[in-house]
Amino acid sequence: MTPVGPVVIRFDGGSRGNPGPAASGFVIEVDGETVIEEGHYLGRGTNNEAEYDGLIRGLERALDLHLGTVVVCGDSELVIRQMEGKYKVRAAHLKKLHKEAASLVLRFASVEFCHVPRSENAAADRILNQALTRETDVLE
Fold first, then answer.
1. Cis omega before residue 21 (within 30°)?
2. Residue 41: HSE in the Cβ half-sphere, 13 Å Cα cutoff
3. Most buried residue, 40, 49, 79, 114, by most Cβ within 10 Å?
4. What is the DSSP string of 19-40?
5. How far apart are CA 3 and CA 28, in angstroms?
6. Do residues 16 and 64 touch, judged by C-beta distance below 8 A?
7. Which are the contacts of 122, defined by CB distance < 8 A and separation ≥ 6?
């Protein structure tokens, strides 16, 4: 796949209770078209763990598609700012996830992070909520 325009990964994660049942989701858009949507049921976890899971799975899938340059958008200010190096990762349970995401970022030619309002992250939110409600993965 050789994209002409921007490749955007939109990710999200959530839990019902914190911790509680959790799920993550991501959408990959190539040239303005959605090419992949995935939601993953995680079992028990925190909201931030689910956010990182969505990010990690989105990055992994983009690498599977040999996409070298991506824009990563999420509505989690914490995760985006930690990935940009603007916030420290203090929570012990997030350090491993941050390290995993950071190692994936290094495999791309270029990654730009952007924090977006929840309203601009509706597709990732929708797919994660489907996985959370169904308590199973949703692959589209």
1. no
2. 11
3. 79
4. SEEEEEEEEEEETTEEEEEEEE
5. 12
6. no
7. none
Identify the CA nearest to 123 among candidates 2, 43, 3, 11: 11
Domain ranges of the chain: 7-134
CA 100 – CA 117 distance, rounded (Å): 25
Contact 65, 105 (CB under 8 A): no
pLDDT at 140: 79
C-alpha angle 64-108-137 in degrees, rounded to nearest 5? 40
Name the CA dihedral angle for 23, 72, 70, 62, rounded to a multiple of 10 degrees.
-10
Which residue shows structure tokens 């689910």?
50
In residues, how long is the chain? 140
Let me know if domain 7-134 sits in CATH 3.30.420.10. yes
pTM of the model: 0.95
pLDDT at 3 over 80: no
Q: Tell me how far CA of residue 65 lies from CA of 102, 107, 122, 127, in angstroms.
A: 19, 13, 23, 20
